[in-house]
């Protein structure tokens, strides 16, 4: 369990983290979402005792990281943004070093072998870390965090530098670990935290912009009033039909394709759903809809949505 | 602490640093042995010890430069500082790893003494042990200075040159004292002179106050290192 209360961190006059509070329950995966420089890594560095906070407190399994750092750190496995690898060692030597550094009591050989199998680095365990690819290095970093089987895992952008297959593997692994670990995972990719996390904390400019379950946040942020459609039919007429729909704000022709097919980007008034109406009208004229999807919000749009409207974060909580 | 000590000791031999250090140490002491006891035909190797002062001043910073600076540059300090061990054991572990390498060099000088003793009956073993102890203390002092400077920067070269300067300053305290006009200040400077104490040891004068002097200097620098690392977490 992780508890953070009114945590602040200033670098000189600049506030990197500004009075944030949240809680992660046991066996919960919390996603930490924010753009670069939002304060994600700083918060994680405070939680793991690498930095100290200017104000506020952080507790790991009930132990304050500042007043009893050694006891608190025993419960934490940390994968920082740059995996802290001694590149002049082999993978096995490195994990062996981490094992003794963490004063781990589990049977060494079987424990380390188990971790290597879990993160799929067994085949490179006797190679020098500096000769490994970025993806493998990232996984060695993850392996390091798992040594000693800590109950709390703090993972700072764990999928950076991995190829798509590896990303899926690591996400599956994190989900599996989430069954009996408390995990905080940071990312600047919304679909990633949506795929893995039970709860999402959105952080921007050192402040919490939203703290909600993944589903709630997604539905609040969904953009059903912005659609992308592909329709077969003459452009002028289809456009006219679309513009005639009530609540329609804007119809833009994105691309005219072959065989009389055209792609449109349409926007209706917020909180309205024009999909049925659009289907009925087009169907009656025998102009089939070939593709219909809601335009996904980009991360930038999410932050604008969450942070520009100042009270949006509060609204979401309610 | 043992884990850190082991890793740092091994890493001296993953890179050329350990080999270069020992090579220079052996080469220099060998040269001083050749030009000292062997040429003059006097069975006294204390000249080797006193000449090594200069070499140690320059090469020990090479040994200590990467100990903490590199950890910061490569961000591996995020591993050590978030592990369930105290800052003191990290610093002491790194300190001891350099001390172990340095001791290997000192052992080599003992080997010269043994070689010399085969040809003479008048070996002053008490004096030699005193010299060895003095050299160990001086080396540990330079290492603690080097670790402290290494904790101040991310750059190995800056750390090396910085600790050479610090060592030089420790040596030149006596020279400065000689030209300082105020009696009080002069005495204060003499009282922290490392060189005069070391040359006393190498000339055969031995005093437990000297051990205390070196040990407190070493502890002081290790303490400063720990405090400096602690300070960085708060900034």
Indicate the radius of gyration of chain B in whole angstroms: 19 Å
- Largest β sheet strand count, sense and barrel closure of chain A: 6 strands, mixed
**Outline of chain B, from the CA principal axes?**
globular
Number of strands of chain A: 14
How many runs of DSSP E, i.e. beta strands of chain B?
0
Write the layout of secondary structure elements.
The complex is a heterodimer of chains A (318) and B (235).
Chain A lengths: L1 E10 L2 E11 L4 E5 L6 H8 L7 E6 L2 E2 L4 H5 L2 E4 L11 H11 L6 H11 L15 H13 L5 E5 L7 H14 L4 E6 L2 H7 L2 E6 L2 E7 H8 L4 E7 L2 H10 L3 E9 L4 E8 L6 H10 L4 E6 L4 H10 L3 H6 L1
Parallel strand pairs in A: 3-8, 3-9, 6-7, 7-8
Antiparallel strand pairs in A: 1-2, 1-4, 4-5, 9-10, 11-13, 11-14, 12-13
Chain B lengths: L1 H13 L2 H24 L5 H28 L3 H4 L6 H31 L7 H26 L5 H24 L3 H9 L2 H9 L5 H27 L1
In brief:
The complex is a heterodimer of chains A (318) and B (235). Chain A has 318 residues and is an alpha/beta fold.
Q: How would you characterize this protein structure?
A:
Chain A is of the alpha/beta class and 318 residues long. Chain A folds into 2 domains: 2-221, P-loop containing nucleotide triphosphate hydrolases (Rossmann fold), CATH 3.40.50; 226-294, Alpha-Beta Plaits. Chain A is built from 12 helices and 14 strands. Chain A has helices at 40-47, 69-73, 91-101, 108-118, 134-146, 164-177, 190-196, 214-221, 235-244, 275-284, 299-308, 312-317; strands at 2-11, 14-24, 29-33, 55-60, 63-64, 76-79, 152-156, 182-187, 199-204, 207-213, 226-232, 248-256, 261-268, 289-294. Chain A has a 6-stranded mixed sheet with strand order 6-7-8-3-9-10, sandwiched between helices. Chain A has a 4-stranded antiparallel sheet with strand order 2-1-4-5. Chain A is elongated, with a radius of gyration of 24 Å. With 235 residues, chain B is mainly alpha-helical. Chain B has one domain (2-234). Helix content of chain B is 83%, strand content 0%. Chain B contains 10 helices and no strands. Chain B is globular. Chain B starts with a helix and ends with a helix. The interface between A and B is medium-sized, with 29 and 25 residues.
């Amino acid at each position: 369990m992780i508890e953070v209360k009114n945590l602040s961190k200033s670098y000189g006059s600049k506030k990197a983290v500004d009075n944030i509070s949240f809680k992660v329950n046991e066996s919960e995966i919390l996603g930490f979402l924010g753009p670069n420089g939002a304060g994600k890594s700083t918060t994680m560095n405070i939680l793991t005792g690498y930095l100290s906070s200017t104000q506020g407190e952080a507790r790991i399994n009930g132990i304050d990281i500042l007043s009893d750092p050694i006891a608190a750190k025993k419960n934490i496995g940390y994968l920082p943004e740059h995996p802290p690898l001694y590149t002049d060692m082999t993978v096995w030597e490195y994990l062996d070093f981490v094992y003794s550094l963490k004063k781990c009591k589990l049977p060494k050989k079987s424990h380390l072998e188990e971790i290597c199998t879990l993160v799929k680095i067994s085949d490179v365990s006797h190679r020098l870390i500096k000769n490994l690819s970025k993806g493998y290095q990232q996984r060695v970093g993850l392996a390091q965090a798992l040594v000693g089987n800590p109950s709390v895992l703090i993972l700072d952008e764990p999928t950076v530098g991995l190829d798509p297959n590896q990303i899926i593997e690591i996400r599956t692994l994190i989900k599996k670990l989430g069954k009996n670990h408390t995990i905080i995972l940071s990312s600047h990719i919304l679909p990633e935290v949506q795929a893995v996390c039970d709860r999402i904390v959105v952080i921007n400019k050192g402040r919490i912009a939203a703290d909600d379950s993944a589903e709630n946040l997604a539905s609040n942020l969904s953009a059903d009033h912005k659609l992308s459609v592909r329709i077969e039919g003459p452009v002028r007429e289809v456009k006219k039909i679309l513009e005639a729909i009530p609540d329609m704000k804007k119809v833009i022709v994105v691309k005219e394709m072959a065989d009389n097919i055209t792609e449109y980007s349409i926007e209706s008034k917020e909180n309205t759903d024009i999909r049925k109406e659009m289907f009925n009208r087009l169907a009656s004229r025998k102009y089939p809809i070939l593709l219909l999807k809601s335009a996904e919000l980009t991360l930038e749009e999410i932050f604008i949505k969450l942070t520009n409207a100042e009270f949006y974060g509060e609204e979401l909580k309610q | 602490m043992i884990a850190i000590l082991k890793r740092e000791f091994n890493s001296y031999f993953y890179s050329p640093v350990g080999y270069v250090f020992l090579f220079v140490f052996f080469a220099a002491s060998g040269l001083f042995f050749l030009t000292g006891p062997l040429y003059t035909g006097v069975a006294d190797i204390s000249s080797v010890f006193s000449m090594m002062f200069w070499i140690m001043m320059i090469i020990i910073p090479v040994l200590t430069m990467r100990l903490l600076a590199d950890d910061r540059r490569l961000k591996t300090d995020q591993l050590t500082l978030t592990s369930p061990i105290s800052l003191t054991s990290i610093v002491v572990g790194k300190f001891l790893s350099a001390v172990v390498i340095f001791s290997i060099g000192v052992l080599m000088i003992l080997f010269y003494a043994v070689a010399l003793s085969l040809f003479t009956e008048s070996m002053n073993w008490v004096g030699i042990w005193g010299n060895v102890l003095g050299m160990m203390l001086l080396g540990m002092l330079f290492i603690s200075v080097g670790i402290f400077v290494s904790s101040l920067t991310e750059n190995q070269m800056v750390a090396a040159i910085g600790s050479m300067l610090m060592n030089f300053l420790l040596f030149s305290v006596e020279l400065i004292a000689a030209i300082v006009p105020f009696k009080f200040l002069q005495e204060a400077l003499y009282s922290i002179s490392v060189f005069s104490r070391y040359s006393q040891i190498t000339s055969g004068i031995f005093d437990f106050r000297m051990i205390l002097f070196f040990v407190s200097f070493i502890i002081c620098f290790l303490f400063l290192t720990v405090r400096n690392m602690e300070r960085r977490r708060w900034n």
